[in-house]
Amino acid sequence: MTVANGAHGSGKVAPDRSFLTASVPELVKQLTVGEKIQLLAGKNFWETAEIPRLAIPSVKVTDGPNGARGAQFGKQTAATALPNATCLAATFSAPLAEAAGHLLAAEAKARGAVCLLAPTVNIQRTPLGGRAFESFSEDPTLSGLMAASYVNGLQAAGVSATIKHFIGNDQEHERNGANSIIAPRPLREVYLRPFQIAERLAHPDAYMTSYNRINGTHSSENPWLLQDLLRKEWGFDGLIMSDWFGTYSVSEAINAGLDLEMPGPAVWRAPQLVNHLVAAHKIDPRAIDKRVAETLKWVQKYAKLNPEVVYAPKGPEKVRDSAEERASDAKLLREIGAQGAVLLKNEGILPITSGKVAVIGPNAKAAVVTGGGSAKLRSLWAVTPWDGLEGNKPADVELSYAFGCHGAKFVPLLDRQFTAADGEHGFDLKFYIRGEDGELAATPALVDRWDTSDLLLGEFQALIGRPAEWVVELSTTFTPEQSGVYEFGTTLTGSGKVYVDDQLVVDASKDQEPGTSFFYAGIAEKRGTFKAEKGKSYVVRLVHDSRRPADAKLLSQPIQIHGIRLGAEPLVSDDDAIAGAVAAAKAADKVVIVAGLNSDWESESYDRPDLSLPYRTDELIDAVADANPNTVVVLQAGSAVGMPWLDKVAGVVFAWYGGNETGNAIADVVYGKVNPSGRLPLSLPRRKVDIAANLNSKSARTDIHYEEGIWVGYKHFNARGIAPLFPFGHGLSYTTWAYSGLEVTAPSGEPSADEWRLEARVTVTNTGKVAGAHSVHFYTAPPAETATSLLHPEHALQAFVKLDDVQPGESRTASVVLDKYAISHWDELWETWRVEQGTWAVRVGVDAQTMYGRAEFEVAHDIEWRGL
Question: Which residues belong to any copy of the PA14 domain (predicted)?
Answer without folding.
Answer: 422-582
